[in-house]
Design goal:
The complex is a heterodimer of chains A (274) and B (470).
Chain A: H1 3-34, H2 54-62, H3 65-96, H4 102-111, H5 121-130, H6 137-162, H7 165-173, H8 178-189, H9 191-207, H10 210-215, H11 223-228, H12 238-268
Helix pairs in contact in A: 1-12, 2-12, 3-6, 3-9, 4-6, 6-9, 7-8, 9-12
Chain B: H1 3-25, E1 32-38, H2 41-44, H3 50-57, E2 60-66, H4 71-78, E3 88-92, H5 96-101, H6 109-114, H7 116-119, H8 126-130, E4 133-134, E5 137-138, E6 141-153, H9 154-157, H10 160-170, H11 180-190, E7 197-198, E8 201-202, E9 208-210, H12 220-231, H13 249-260, H14 274-282, E10 286-292, H15 307-310, E11 313-316, E12 328-337, H16 343-356, H17 359-367, H18 377-380, H19 383-388, H20 391-398, E13 402-404, H21 411-427, H22 433-448, H23 453-460
The chains are: A mainly alpha (274), B alpha/beta (470).
């Protein structure tokens, strides 16, 4: 066997192990979502059984799960879009402005992510209650953006730093203004960074629990709360939780796959100097 | 006056009269209430029927179902607002102290006394009302009453061959355990492997002698340990200092007893939370288990439990320790009114509570086979219903002498610390029960010592419910 063939076999073994490692939880979610409740915790675990769609049926009939998915999509996409717009503009400014205070400003922005979220739950509740935004997707978009914008700023600053200023100067010599230069020259070059930021913002907003629990009721309830609400005082309805978890996985996977084209490039770009 | 004018006046008078009748009949018509609830049977059974309540009273109720973890935090945040979103709150009885001390819940005593005949106050098992009091004030109304009781495989315990073999081995008759020693003997006797015979039939799965909760998640182990502790004659608090006192002999005995049951539990006992624990009974894979009655109804329903198809469930009051008979350990899930609501909303919310916990509705749930753990004597004592739900009689009889579960404002600290330390002891990470209990107690006391003795003694004082005073 040539060393090339050996390497190939080793590669496939490694891929298989990694796949098993990552796919097992998803496999268990799917299997459990199709398993009758009575067999959920049988010992040894039952893998051969008559599958049932009852949990999926319950999920969409006992609760307005389709509306809760819609709420989550509005909140996650809204916060992601807002954070990308504000965050990338702020990051561009921080990257280009030469000032002795700019590092302090950057750190101040980053510090927004440092406080424990629980510390601001009550103030947020009172503010949103007083302005009538409680139990609306907009409240969650605003809250999530306060966490997503600092992340976007810091991610995008690194990408903007990598873009040679000479390129922008050349564009400006050709007649572009600052905004046009940013839009047509700089931003396309940092598309991988935008993709990475978008994925992180989306995943954070999609999965967030604490604020969604405290700031929403039935109108703006998101999927994380909807799925967890099958945890009651007398039972944890695992079948429905698993069915909900599987459905909740789908939009996230679609979003990441959509961004995948730029994602790998974005995650590695800037990691090596020179 | 022309015919048209007369008709117009007549119609106007009729409309005025009918609207005044409407206002008399439905004084709360148009009031909208929101309830902060969970997906528990006490809520899910009522939720689809709120339309009937609206037709009856004109009060519109919207029930939001949120997850159990985090719900109390949401209630606390909600009660911090002067114009709350939720007027009705679902309450687990251990929360009453914390929420009572925070002034979050409306005192329902005077309303309950005023409407005693209408709500059938005398029909409610007294301890279930006591469970919802704080400093004697009724802060919530029972919607589902619980006791911690013994559940077992009646088909196995009543099998003549099993009875003969048991008597040969242990020297006394096989029957539902009267003492915890018997409970352990039964657990040992029925711990069998797949393929062994049980009740004359080969087992398709391993049969575990017992299924108790040992998980530290959400303090689940404490939900079993505390009833054991009480049954061994222990208590939570030192009556002189108001500090945690769960380090004495009864407390150690209870922990050691729980540990002695481990060999007869499923091997992953440290992962057994409430529903996983009861799941073993429901699948017929455990011979006996002691847990909350909220899930007892499942054992009699073939749609929810395999046991109802392959065997038969039996129910009995809890066994005794060498400390002799002890009061039954109880709990309640109830409905409360947010103290920050407007007066009219409070009255409307009380109307809803009266309707949702009424004898009529509770009987309807029982007749329809819906699993609400009942709290009314007339229902628990109904002969026909007792036949349908054999545990009703146990619930009724065992609550004659009963004592409520923890209601201290620091109950969360107690459940968290004891949950972790007891679970570590059961896992063998801590050498002795004394060490585990002392560590947990010290952690709780570190927090309690910041308060005065008077304050601490007030917190442990279970003042009799004023609503029960004649």
């Amino acid at each position: 066997m040539t060393s090339n063939a050996r390497e190939k076999i080793l590669f496939y073994i490694l891929i298989t192990v990694v796949l098993i490692l990552f796919m097992t939880p998803i496999y268990l979610i799917v299997v459990s979502s199709l398993k009758p409740s009575a067999l959920m915790f049988s010992r040894p675990p039952t893998f051969i059984f008559t599958p049932t769609l009852q949990h999926y049926y319950d999920l969409f009939t006992m609760r307005p799960f389709h509306l809760q998915i819609l709420n989550s999509l509005i909140v996650a996409l809204g916060s992601t879009a807002f954070s990308l717009v504000v965050g990338s503009l702020a990051a561009y400014a921080i990257s280009r402005i030469k000032s002795r205070w700019i590092n302090d400003v950057s750190f101040w922005i980053l510090s927004m992510r440092m406080f424990p979220p629980i510390a601001v739950v009550v103030p947020y509740y009172i503010i949103f209650k007083s302005i009538g935004l409680l139990d609306t997707p907009l409240a969650l978009i605003i809250v999530y953006s306060t966490f997503n914008i600092p992340l976007t700023v810091w991610l995008m600053k690194g990408f903007f730093d990598e873009v040679p200023e000479a390129l922008e100067e050349a564009a400006q010599v050709d007649g572009h203004g600052v905004i046009a230069t940013f839009w047509y020259v700089t931003l396309p070059l940092t598309a991988p960074g935008l993709a990475v930021a978008a994925v992180f913002c989306f995943i954070f907003s999609w999965n967030e629990f604490l604020f969604a629990l405290m700031l929403t009721g039935s109108k703006a309830q998101t999927v994380t709360i909807a799925v967890m609400s099958f945890w009651s005082s007398d039972a944890v309805q695992w079948g429905r939780i698993m069915a909900g978890s599987f459905v909740v996985l789908i939009p996230g996977v679609i979003f990441v796959l959509t961004c995948q084209r730029w994602l790998v490039k974005g995650l590695t770009m800037g990691s090596v100097k020179g | 006056m022309g015919i048209w004018n007369k008709s117009t006046i007549a119609l106007g008078v009729a409309a005025l009269m009918s609207s005044s009748v409407w206002a008399q009949d439905k004084p709360f018509a148009g009031v909208e209430l929101k309830m902060l609830g969970i997906g528990d049977t006490s809520v899910t059974r009522v939720a689809p029927l709120v339309g009937e309540f609206e037709a009856l009273t004109g009060i519109k109720v919207q029930i939001d179902q949120l997850p159990y973890p985090g719900l109390i935090d949401k209630i606390i945040v909600e009660s911090s607002s002067d114009s709350p979103t939720y007027q009705l709150l679902w309450i687990d009885s251990p929360w009453v102290g914390l929420l009572g001390e925070a002034g979050a819940l409306e005192d329902l005593t005077s309303r309950a006394k005023r409407d005693a005949a209408e709500i059938g106050l005398d029909d409610i098992v007294p301890i279930q009302l006591q469970e919802n009091t704080w400093q004697g004030k009724l802060l919530a109304f029972p919607a589902s009453g619980m006791t911690w009781l013994q559940q077992y495989r009646a088909d196995l315990l009543e099998n003549p061959d099993e009875q003969a073999n048991f008597k040969k081995k242990y020297g006394y008759d096989l029957a539902p355990a009267k003492t915890w020693i018997q409970y352990r003997d039964i657990a040992e006797f029925f711990t069998r492997k797949k393929g062994d015979l049980a009740g004359g039939k080969p087992l398709e799965n391993d049969l575990y002698g017992v299924s108790q909760s040992y998980s530290r998640v959400q303090g689940a182990i404490t939900h079993d340990y505390f009833p054991f502790m009480r049954s061994f004659g222990g208590d939570y608090w030192d009556p002189k200092t108001g500090l945690c006192a769960m380090t004495g002999e009864p407390h150690i005995k209870a922990a050691e007893y729980m540990q002695s049951l481990i060999p007869f539990n499923p091997p992953d006992y440290l992962g057994l939370m409430w529903d996983i624990q009861s799941g073993f009974m429901e699948r017929g894979e455990a011979a006996e288990a002691a847990y909350w009655s909220v899930r007892s109804v499942r054992l009699t329903n073939p749609e929810e439990a395999v046991l109802a198809k392959i065997g038969k469930a039996g129910f009995a009051a809890n066994p005794e320790s060498d400390a002799g008979p002890q009061p039954t350990y109880t709990g309640t899930l109830g409905f409360a009114v947010n103290a920050k609501s407007q007066d009219k909303e409070k009255d409307a919310a009380w109307e809803f509570i009266k309707w949702a916990t009424s004898e009529k509705l509770m009987r309807r749930f029982a007749d329809e086979g819906k699993g609400v753990s009942q709290f009314r004597k007339s229902i628990l004592g109904d002969a026909k219903l007792q036949e349908k739900y054999p545990y009703y009689k146990v619930l009724l009889d065992s609550q004659v002498n009963a004592r409520r579960r923890i209601f201290h404002p620091f109950y969360q600290a107690v459940e968290e610390n004891f949950g972790v330390e007891l679970s570590k002891y059961m896992a063998g990470e801590t050498a002795t029960a004394k060490e585990a209990l002392t560590t947990a107690c010290n952690a709780v006391n570190t927090q309690l010592q910041m308060f005065s003795v008077e304050q601490r003694l007030r917190w442990i004082n279970d003042a009799p419910a004023e609503v029960l005073k004649k």
